[in-house]
Amino acid sequence: LSSAAVGATSVSVVATGMSExxxxxxxxxxxxxxxxxxxxxxxxxxxxxxxxxxxxxxTEVEINGLLGKASTTATVTVDAVGMSSDELQxxxxxxxxxxxxxxxxxxxxxxxxxxxSILSKATDATVTATGMTTAKLTAVAGNxxxxxxxxxxxxLTLTSAQSVDEISALMGTAxxxxxxxVVATGMSxxxxxxxxxxxAEVGAITGALDGLxxxxxxxxxxxxxxxxxxxxxxxxxxxxxxxxxxxxDATKVAANGVTGTFTVASDVASAQINAVLAQTAxxxxxxxxxxxxxxxxxxxxxxxxxxxxxLNGLTLASxxxxxxxxxxxxxxxxxxx
Length: 337
What we know:
Layout: E1 11-14, H1 20-28, E2 42-48, E3 50-54, H2 60-69, E4 75-79, H3 85-93, E5 100-102, E6 105-106, H4 112-120, E7 122-123, E8 126-127, H5 134-142, E9 156-158, H6 164-170, E10 180-183, H7 189-197, E11 202-206, H8 218-227, E12 233-236, H9 242-247, E13 253-259, E14 261-264, H10 270-278, E15 285-289, H11 295-303, E16 310-312, H12 322-330
Parallel strand pairs: 1-2, 3-4, 4-5, 5-7, 6-8, 9-10, 10-11, 12-13, 14-15, 15-16
């Protein structure tokens, strides 16, 4: 290739079985490393056969040059172990020429499009997700099947910007336990259910946790509160069942943080009735169905009677003291007749 007798762009290369030393010679001929003296004599799409690329014996310039001359009919395999950001960029730029990539590691340094293209051809890739933007995590989620089990081995931060499907994908087998940080502010009920389904992988939930509605199951409400480190949760309790109301950790709810229209019944324990009503906003519409309530439950209803709009099913007995009876019967929540 260094001979003047060989004209420019006149040479075809069948790369099958070539060592990296031979491939470097194809690129540089007898010239200085990375000079491309040999590459200039290779025809466009002139490298065919099985082309194996790695950094073991090829420089970044040589990798880019060889891929640029590879035919789309060639079978190109890349061992990406130890590749730099520039080398990964070369893979992205020539991704249509590449058939498979092994030992790839992508990080926040790579752009979203680059992450997506590399992972699309990868097998058992590793992702260092620390600091990744929403777009980059979306690219990872879209190719999660090509990430190794446990391959998301660094801290992964999820927010409401990721879709339900993306949250489920990112928190699947690719993620290790206690390794996900969830900022729950603005997350919908469906997103919160997706987080709860993989709670073992969550190290902590922070933010407002303001998406708690009847659309989050009772068990998921309890699970989410278990990992929630804040005290500013907001609960839209409209339509919540007794089980859902029972699952609320009122110590982690903001003052006046329980809103909506809901009913409290005898299957909610007295301490929980007290805790939930204490955090209920004045604008909420609260019905208490007192049928079957014991003295303790009726006592905490009386303690929070200002929060109750409608009180029905009330039966008074000798277990209630005079003050409690007076307070309950004088409340506007108790209808005539």
